[in-house]
Design brief:
The protein is built from eight helices and no strands. It is mainly alpha-helical. It has one domain (35-216). Helix 2 runs antiparallel to helix 7. The longest helix is centred in the first third of the chain and has 32 residues, at 3-34. The radius of gyration is 21 Å and the shape is elongated.
Length: 217
């Protein structure tokens, strides 16, 4: 076979592989964008938790356990809800699945652990925050080529890591100080997720005409 023909075939195969990869990325981004309202619910939940941390008395470990467990549980359920609605093939879905499982697991640990101490609670929250933050940053990197303003998801992940590091390196404050740290994080995280949700909604609306072409490709 002539060398020119072989080169042409190789080029065609490479172009086909590249188009298939781009089509898969578009499909995954569109599934993620379709769940913008779940991202918004996670953001609203974070804002509510942040407000409660500052407005309600959190002077006991029991109050903190209930607050964090409820937040981690609901956030984990929302993450798994996104997976159930959109997971197909590759993409950020395994990261959302793991994030959901981590949230539910952290909630179960804090509720079922008898007589959990303030120090133990801090380390549970710190571990959960850092793990979920890493997963959110990875998801943002995976989506960066298709969805604009994915930096909001990366920033949300970074805020989780920062809170986890702060709690891990400063484990001495009392229940009120812990509540304020969690509250400040939840407010920042909530604002970023709500912003991301509305960006995803606009992105999804702009790409609706492309959906049929991307799915049929």
């Amino acid at each position: 076979m002539p060398q020119a023909t072989m080169n042409a075939q190789n080029t065609t195969q490479q172009d086909t592989a590249r188009r298939d990869a781009e089509t898969l990325e578009v499909k995954e981004a569109m599934r993620f964008g379709r769940n913008w309202w779940i991202v918004a619910l996670r953001g609203v939940l974070s804002l509510l938790v942040g407000a409660m941390s500052f407005l309600l008395p959190m002077s006991t470990i029991f109050a903190l356990v209930i607050l964090f467990a409820a937040y981690a549980l609901l956030d984990g359920i929302f993450c798994l809800g996104s997976v159930v609605r959109g997971a197909k093939g590759r993409g950020p879905w395994w990261m959302l699945s793991l994030e959901g499982v981590l949230g539910i697991g952290a909630a179960v640990i804090t509720v079922l652990w008898p007589e959990i101490t303030a120090l133990a609670l801090i380390y549970v929250v710190a571990a959960w925050a850092m793990a979920t933050g890493v997963l959110e940053i990875i998801a943002a990197v995976r989506l960066r080529k298709q969805i604009q303003n994915e930096w909001l998801l990366a920033a949300a992940g970074l805020s989780s890591i920062v809170m986890g590091v702060v709690l891990a390196l400063w484990p001495g404050p009392g229940a009120v100080a812990i509540a304020w740290i969690i509250g400040a994080y939840a407010l920042v995280f909530g604002v970023l997720l709500v912003g991301l949700a509305f960006r995803l909604r606009r992105w999804q609306a702009a790409h609706v005409p492309m959906r049929k072409t991307a799915v049929e490709a």
